[in-house]
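haha ok so turns out i had the wrong file open the whole time. this is the CORRECT one, sorry everyone. sequence first:
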Amino acid sequence: MVRTHYIIMGVTGSGKTTIGSKLAKALHLEFLDADAFHPRSNITKMAAGVPLEDSDRLPWLSAVRDHLRKSDGCVLACSALKKSYRSILADTSIATRFIHLTISRDTAFARVSSRPDHFMPADLVESQFRSLEQTNDLIVIDAEQPEASVLESVALALENR
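then structure:
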């Protein structure tokens, strides 16, 4: 198997953690959630309904990238909304594939509103869509489908690349 990092990306509520953890299990790879790398200050800021700025995200993304550099391949759930963020994460010695789970604003708002124990409030959904930069190098998957269908779509897309 070719060593690869698979980064499941998208706005909050798109299913990154759910799909990423199941993909990792299917591929027999380590699963990482980039949220675990956030410093307390970022979590506090987001929980208060304040969107992160690039100055907040850059140290966090660097920490995630540093972990990726030590990995022989993994599945990472990470918003990676901007092209510049993806460039930081891809700066490793092995291949990196970005799988963009797409959902509508309404779906994102509904899903985030139904997660009472998560630090990311629904108030920040719109800021995620404003930050999102779509590029041609992304594997785009419709995450409005049922979970099993999303996983199947991801598997098929990876087989065809």
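The radius of gyration is 15 Å.
again sry for the mixup
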